[in-house]
């Protein structure tokens, strides 16, 4: 039965990719943008990548055309190539890769934001995406994985040990429920940043670790702690951003002391 289910989900995943490649790979690189504006953008990009491969100008131009054809702005294109310069090697595959991800996310704004924020998604093979989904299935309900990918695409590109460490910290140190994780962008933060905000609120008395018998949780919701600016987050504590900055500089020093950290969480 388990084997049949794995095959079923694998076939569904492959069907989604197949759908994307058949019906969404429609962008013609040569039709997107005039040559002068593309060349100007390429020169700007090359100037910010010291190791830009010599002789790759044409591939870079093709990538710019393809990105434009998929609805990305020039600012996003520039940042994406600078952050993930190896995509120059993927110029002949980029159209299909973008179409594949559009089919996986099945939500245009989410697709554009995810690729813009995490262009390294384009390095992943379909088998790697499927493997990460299977790992997430071991923690979250299968029907919620797409929601999780929408909220935090980072879970697809980050090392699994890091993702798991963050989930364990949220659930066992902060007492957060799975559903709350799925409704927040908290997994887009590093583990250190998660600890930092949590411990800051603990020290301020704003956050209290829930007990198993507690019927009500009066802590601020995860979205108020993480899906917000530093300024709005600090307002939860009643302190100032300057005080939070001082705290952040101290955290890496004492956070290495497991005994002290355990005392904080008791």
UniProtKB/TrEMBL annotation:
InterPro entries for this protein: MTERF (IPR003690), MTERF_sf (IPR038538)
GO molecular function: nucleic acid binding
Signal peptide interval: none
Domain of life assignment: Eukaryota
Keywords on record: Transit peptide
The keyword Transit peptide belongs to this UniProt entry's keyword annotation: yes
Gene3D superfamilies: Transcription termination factor 3, mitochondrial
Family named by the database record: Belongs to the mTERF family.
Protein's name according to its UniProt entry: mTERF domain-containing protein
Species, as recorded: Ornithodoros erraticus
